[in-house]
């Protein structure tokens, strides 16, 4: 696996791939890789001649300085995992390379970025949009891979690709879970064993409860109220939102749901000061 740390060098390498007629897949990450990331890399390897994984902890998508400072950084371990899985290129740009000066650009995704994550993390999706655009320019992939755990990010990136005409095919891959149901996340490493094994899995149980209730014909309002009751049994969990939203508009749905494919059930909650998110998409 080649390690590349500058934009001009990754550009040059990818141009040489293009000259050879090779297709390129990009898996953008912020490192602290886990099985969820590796599943994206495996899918990218199956669909492209060359796979680039980027690791860059993007400061402009953090609206909380503490969250940025505490974000796990495990580069040497990440390198071993990527070697093992057969990744071709690890692209780790420096902060100066990505942001030689504080960027003045901002991005808005009307209607998509002021709800759910966007409501609680102002500026987050602007930062995601800017960094993903920069990574797309730097790596020029044919295909790019993102996890469905960040479903709102998926919708935002879909809009970005459409609005800016990036010639890139997007692949959104299913969330990988621990056997307890807990969605894999780099942030899970900050949880104690108790929280990780017995408290955090309640988030997934709450989502499943909502899905079951909707399938039985109950309204979304009733279904989420019941899930809140389930979560209230564990005072260590502080729910930020638990919502049923329309898959296209992200607007809240409160009534009955005729077609489960039209909604996403999503949750964000704090546990031991760690912010966790999860969702059920394509119920
Ligand atoms: O999902 C992530 O890890 C990040 O938001 C991304 C897409 C790599 C942009 O920094």
Ordered list of secondary-structure elements with their pairings:
Elements (H helix, E strand, L loop, with lengths): L1 E3 L2 H13 L4 E6 L5 H13 L2 E6 L9 H6 L4 H11 L3 E3 L3 H4 L18 H4 L3 H16 L3 E5 L3 H13 L5 E5 L19 H7 L1 H15 L4 H13 L4 E10 L16 E9 L2 E7 L3
Parallel strand pairs: 1-4, 2-3, 2-5, 3-4, 5-6
Antiparallel strand pairs: 7-8, 8-9
Bound molecules: pantoate.
Question: How would you characterize this protein structure?
Answer:
This protein has 283 residues and is α/β, with parallel strands linked by helices. The protein folds into two domains: 172 residues, Rossmann fold, CATH 3.40.50.620; 93 residues, 2-Layer Sandwich (Pantoate--beta-alanine Ligase, Chain: A,domain 2), CATH 3.30.1300.10. The chain is 41% helix and 19% strand. The protein has eleven helices and nine strands. The chain has a six-stranded parallel sheet with strand order 1-4-3-2-5-6, with helices on both faces. It has a three-stranded antiparallel sheet with strand order 7-8-9, covered by helices on one side. The longest helix is centred in the middle third of the chain and has 16 residues. The radius of gyration is 19 Å and the shape is globular. The site of pantoate has 10 residues, from β2 and α7. The site of pantoate (PAF) has 10 residues, from β2 and α7.
